[in-house]
Every structure is written in structure tokens, then in C-alpha cells.
From TrEMBL:
It comes from the Bacteria. SUPFAM superfamilies: HybD-like. This is Hydrogenase maturation protease. One of its GO terms (biological process) is protein processing. It comes from Selenihalanaerobacter shriftii. The keyword ATP-binding does not apply. The lineage of its organism: Bacteria, Bacillati, Bacillota, Clostridia, Halanaerobiales. InterPro entries: Pept_HybD-like_dom_sf, Peptidase_A31. Belongs to the peptidase A31 family. One of its GO terms (molecular function) is enzyme activator activity. Pfam families: HycI (PF01750). Keywords: Aspartyl protease, Hydrolase, Protease.
Length: 136
């Protein structure tokens, strides 16, 4: 089956904000139950992402992960790749969220939790835009 969209969450939920990709994946899966989306828990090993991407059959793929860059904590960063020579994949979007804390701990930091609903809404909006679809 070819999915319209696949969403892959990556992260380590044992390291506070490093798990945000997994938490967002879970929230999105609940919001988009009836949508033509394949949700995939990519686990903690980003190296396996390349193997996973080869197995996913979707027109568009979103990968969500935490990444320490130079932007403000809680902010989102986007990288969109439009492959030229693929038969199915039209667009690959990497969405990274700047973490506040990455120490050992089984929950998101309070600082990221305060921004979580806004982050979720932004990712949800991107999904709706990609699918040109209105969800109730």
C-alpha cells in the first residue's frame, strides 16, 4: 500500500526533551486516526532512519526529532528535500525541535511542556497542509 503521508517520530523518551519526537508521534496518531497516514516509531537510533526510509512506501514523509542547534529552545526547524529521481517519494520533511533539557528523566522538561501544545499545533497544521485535507 502506498500511503499519502508517513510520519516518523525519533527520540529517546528516557532523556527528557530528546523524546519529543516520540511524544509528538503519539499525539498526532490520536488526532489523525482516520487519515491516510502511516505512523512509525523510529526509536532512538537515528542511523536506523536510513534503513527505515528505504522501507516506507509513501508520497510524503515527515521525520520529527529533537536536535540541538543554535535556535531558541522549543523552536522548530525545517528541512525539506524534494528528491528528483524517486518513483514514489515526492517530499521528505525533517522537523527538529530544539530541546531545553536532555538529561536523564522519563518526562519532557516543564519548559518544553509549556510549549508542547503550540508545537503540536504547528506540526498538525503542516500535516493538514500536506494532505490538503480538513480534519474534524
Amino acid at each position: 500500500m502506498i500511503y499519502e503521508l508517513a510520519v516518523i517520530g525519533i527520540g529517546d523518551i528516557r532523556q527528557q526533551d530528546q523524546g519529543v519526537g516520540i511524544y509528538l508521534l503519539d499525539s498526532l496518531q490520536k488526532k489523525f486516526k482516520k487519515a491516510p497516514i502511516k505512523f512509525i516509531n523510529g526509536g532512538v537510533d537515528g542511523e536506523d532512519l536510513f534503513i527505515l526510509l528505504q522501507k516506507v512506501v509513501a508520497k510524503q514523509i515527515i521525520v520529527i526529532d529533537a536536535a540541538e542547534t543554535t535556535i531558541n529552545p522549543g523552536s522548530l526547524n525545517y528541512l525539506t528535500i524534494t528528491p528528483n529521481e524517486t518513483k514514489i517519494l515526492e517530499k521528505l520533511i525533517l522537523i527538529t525541535i530544539e530541546p531545553f533539557k536532555t538529561e536523564w528523566g522519563a518526562k519532557l522538561s516543564l519548559s518544553l511542556l509549556r510549549k508542547y501544545d503550540n508545537i503540536l499545533a504547528e506540526v498538525e497544521s503542516n500535516i493538514k497542509e500536506l494532505l490538503n485535507y480538513s480534519f474534524q
